[in-house]
Each structure stands twice: as C-alpha cells, then as structure tokens.
Specification:
The chain is an alpha/beta fold. The structure holds ligand A1D88 and NADPH dihydro-nicotinamide-adenine-dinucleotide phosphate.
C-alpha cells in the first residue's frame, strides 16, 4: 500500500467512508523535516542570511502510531507559515527543545521526540483513521485542521483553551505537522473543509485567519467594533490580509501599512482606502540600534490623521515588533489598544511608557486562537464572508524555496504547498457558492 492508493480513493467520486476505513495505511510517507543534528548549521550568520532551503528536507518517514482522541489525515495541501520559517532557521530557539519537553510529559507524547521534526501548521485533506474515543469524525471526511494542541487536564484552560498549561502549536511545538502527505492531529483540531474552495485555498487561511480573529475581533483580543480606526502592519501579508478583511467586514476603518505600491494596490482591491506605503514615505523609527526617533513617530501619526480626518488609532494590529512598537504605542488614541502576537523584527521592544499610562492605553498579548475562535474563523471562510489570500502554490519538493520567499518578504498574502494533490484547483464541491466569490478568492493570485 502506498499513498498513491490513498490519492486514488480521494479522487474517486464513489469512495465511501467504509472504503477509506478499509484502506491499508502505508508504512511510510513523504514529509518536510528539519534535522536535529543540523541545528547549529547557521551559527554566526545574521538572521537574514539563514537560508531555509538548506535546512528544510523532504524525507521518507515512518507512519506514527495513532493514539486515543487522534486522527491520521491524508494531506492534500498545506501552507507555509512564518513559524515554519522560525523552525527552519532555528530561531529564537531550536524547536527540538519543544519536542523533548513534550516527549517528557507522557508515554504517548514520547512519539514526538524524534531526531527529525515534521513541520507545518495548516492542512486540508481527508480523514484516514481515527483513534479510540473519536466519534464526530469518520474516515473519508474532508477537513481542515487548526493548529491548537491542548491536553485540557488542567482547569486553567477550561474557559479559554489557549490558557491550557500544555498548550502547543501543532507542527511547531509538536511533531507530525501538515507539510507532509499524512499528518497526525488531535481530533479536536478538525473542522469541516469549506466546500467552495480547492484543497490549497482551504489550507491557506487556518493559522493566520484564526490568529487575526482572536487578536482583532474576539473579546479575548481587541474586541474591535464598528467605526474603529485599526492600524494594520503588513496589511497584505499573512496575518494582515485577514486583519484587513475583518476590519472591513466589521465596519471598521483599516489603515493599512505596506511596503510597495503593488501591495498598496492589493489592499485597495480588498476595499481599503487608507494606505501608507512605509517604503515610499521612508519612516525611520530608529536613529541607530538603540535610539528611537520620536519625531518619526509624530510624522507617522500626522499621516494617519490626514487619512482619518484627524482621528487617532483605536487598535493597532502589531506583529513586526521591535522596529515598529514604539510608533504603535505613540499613535494609539487615549484609551486605545495595541494588540500584539509577534515580534518579527526583534522581541526586546522599547516604547515611551508615558504615552501608555498617561493616555490609559492597553497592550494585549495574543497568541493563535482557542478552539471556539478557530472554529468561528473557519466558519466565516466557509460562509464566504472572509476569503483565502493565496498568491502562489509550490510543490512539496519546493517547500524550502517557499519558506525562503516568506523569510525574505518576497511573497504576498499566503503561499500554499501541494502535498498529495497532483495539481491546483481540485476539491471544490460547491461550484455555485464558489462562482459568487470567485473574484475575491482569486484576488491575491499571481500578483
Ligand atoms: C501560531 C503561530 C505562532 C507563531 O508564529 S509565534 C512566533 C514563533 N514563536 C516564537 O518565536 C516563540 C518561541 N518560544 C520561545 O521563545 C520560548 O518558548 C519562550 C520564551 C516563550 C518561553 O521560554 P521557556 O524557556 O519555555 O520558558 P522560561 O520561563 O524561560 O523557562 C522555563 C523554566 O522557567 C520556569 N519559570 C517560568 N515562569 C517562572 C516564574 N514566573 N518564576 C520563576 N520561574 C519560572 C519554569 O518553571 C521552567 O522551569 P524548569 O526549566 O525547571 O522546568
Ligand atoms: N502568535 C501567533 O499566534 C502568530 C504569530 N505569527 C507571527 O507573526 C509574524 C508575521 O506573520 P505573517 O503575517 O504570517 O508573516 P508575513 O511575512 O506573511 O507578513 C508580515 C508582514 O509584515 C510586514 N513587515 C515585516 N517586517 C516588518 C517591519 N520590520 N516593519 C514593518 N512591517 C514589517 C511585511 O509587510 P510590508 O513589507 O508590506 O510592510 C510583511 O508582509 C511572524 O513573526 C509570525 O511568526 C503569525 C501567526 C500567528
């Protein structure tokens, strides 16, 4: 039995759940990995010069044992997230430390502590097998998976599953991720695949869409409301392309920051009107490595006021981190919110705290999304209220190049990866719904 037989079953319109359940599973499959004995390969290099094409491998790996509450999924497509870039350059830490720590927690979790890490935190595909105790999902179900892995044995996570002390990001802090022909997930990660999308379109939003939903919309994040001025850094990037859609769909006013005219055009085509090209306008928030320039914060704030008719920012959607955080705190209005989920340019932030406390601003830390938030974010995709922002699709073999492009900020929106899917465009079940949204679905393609 090989993965080819699985693909044949997925492509046959007559396959039943029983057929999938009866399919023998292969002993091994192809997966994107990083190797434990290579974690020092970039020692001494600048972050920018660490090349994911050197550390990312395509290997044959053995199929992991299936445990209670888990599912094995045939992965038709996945996507590249920035967390896979971090894994591939071994920053800020090697992810093998996460696997070792997880491996120490239980007999079953030991499976994750391997000398290779199968990465990837998104998938669209078909359930192959479910473990004991899984009743809601069956072999043959077409699914996407969100990336929240929790144990839920502690009450700390019972109100908000992100607060579970054993919270992990699947394919980053656990093994057997989505950039592979088969993935292992907890069944609670599974959600119905939006039926108007192809496999690669359905795999694109998951991680970033859920994160943007919690960070901006959810009451656990900024709790955005109608009319809010929302400053969105990287508004055509992975997170930003969904934050921009949430702001527009929720009656807010996105102020989109991008770094090229081409990216500004994409934001316009989504419906945004207030756009700042940070490259063309040349903001330099830092005079040197240790000193910020408040005059540049003010120039940036003046530009925002020009675009809003004199208003300041209610919510900043932050993720660039060190380079922009001082400016983000400054331009927020009295009582406003800076919500942050990352620090791409550096995690040791500096800002002038007088502008925070004197103006009663709040900084909110946000990370991925709880089970419910991930489900709600996927529901909005399924209803055609929010659309994938897939620009380019790579083969599994070219995942290193895809991660390199994301690392170099040479991509738009999201980049996809075909795993088992032999070509793009497969997996669409509801053609009528798709036709209604086709322009929005294709907005980022090949730009
Ligand atoms: C969905 C997608 C998301 C993304 O893309 S996010 C971007 C990518 N992700 C990242 O860049 C994050 C990578 N992760 C990290 O950098 C690290 O993961 C953290 C900095 C988040 C945490 O580091 P750690 O080493 O796990 O935690 P510690 O707290 O520094 O060390 C653990 C030890 O410190 C003890 N400790 C924790 N809190 C306290 C305290 N308040 N007072 C005293 N000790 C404390 C613990 O118990 C434990 O101890 P013991 O080593 O003995 O087990
Ligand atoms: N905690 C969480 O749950 C999550 C965290 N993340 C993290 O968020 C970060 C962004 O992820 P994602 O949106 O997918 O990545 P992308 O690279 O797709 O998009 C980020 C955008 O940010 C802008 N940007 C990058 N560097 C800077 C900078 N120095 N100053 C201003 N703008 C900058 C770029 O846009 P432009 O050049 O047009 O300005 C870029 O397109 C990553 O660090 C990732 O690990 C992502 C998802 C979930």
């Amino acid at each position: 039995m090989t993965v080819k037989d699985i693909l044949a079953a997925i492509q046959s319109p007559d396959s039943t759940s029983e057929d999938f359940a009866a399919l023998p599973l292969p002993e091994s499959y192809r997966a994107i990995t990083v190797h434990k004995d290579e974690t020092e390969m970039f020692a001494g290099l600048e972050t920018r010069d660490k090349d994911p094409r050197k550390s990312i491998h395509l290997d044959d790996v053995p199929l992991p044992e299936l445990g209670p509450g888990e599912a094995l999924v045939a992965v038709m497509a996945s996507s590249v997230n920035y967390n896979s870039v971090w894994t591939s350059i071994f920053e800020p830490l090697s992810t093998f430390g996460f696997l070792e720590r997880y491996g120490r927690t239980s007999e079953l979790a030991k499976r994750h502590d391997l000398p290779y890490h199968i990465i990837g935190s998104d998938l669209a595909g078909v359930v192959l097998r479910t473990g004991p105790g899984v009743n809601s999902w069956r072999p043959g179900d077409e699914v996407v998976a969100h990336c929240l892995s929790v144990e839920l044995e502690s009450s700390d996570g019972h109100n908000d599953t992100m607060l579970d002390p054993e919270q992990r990001i699947w394919g980053f802090e656990t093994n057997f991720g989505g950039l592979a022909e088969i993935a292992l997930v907890k069944s609670n990660q599974l959600m119905p695949k939006p039926d108007h999308l192809s496999w690669e379109e359905a795999a694109a939003p998951g991680l970033v869409n859920s994160t943007a939903y919690r960070q901006l919309v959810s009451r656990n994040g900024a709790g955005m409301k109608q009319g809010d001025n929302v400053l969105i850094w990287g508004a055509s990037g992975g997170l930003g392309s969904y934050a921009t859609q949430f702001a527009l769909a929720g009656g807010a006013n996105p102020i989109c920051v991008v770094s090229s005219e081409q990216k500004a055009d994409i934001c316009r085509s989504m419906g945004a009107e207030a756009i700042i090209d940070r490259s063309a306008e040349g903001y330099k928030f830092w005079k040197d490595e240790n000193t910020q320039d408040p005059k540049e914060w003010k120039r940036f704030g003046k530009r925002i006021r020009e675009l809003t008719g004199g208003e300041d920012i209610d919510i900043v959607f932050e993720h660039p981190g060190r380079e922009t955080f001082g400016a983000s705190v400054y331009v927020t209005r009295k009582g406003g919110t800076i919500t942050t989920c990352a620090s791409t340019s550096g995690y040791m932030h500096q800002y002038d705290n007088r502008y925070l406390w004197m103006s009663l601003k709040r900084i909110i830390g946000s990370h991925f999304a709880n089970y419910r938030e991930a489900w709600e974010a996927n529901r909005l995709i399924a209803k055609g209220k929010i659309h994938p922002t897939l620009s380019k699709v790579y083969s599994l073999e070219d995942t290193g190049q895809a991660a390199h492009d994301v690392h170099r900020n040479a991509h738009q929106g999201k980049v996809g990866v075909l795993c088992l899917a032999p070509e793009e465009g497969l997996g669409v079940r509801d053609h009528e719904k798709r036709a209604k949204h086709i322009d929005a679905i294709n907005r980022f393609r090949n730009v």
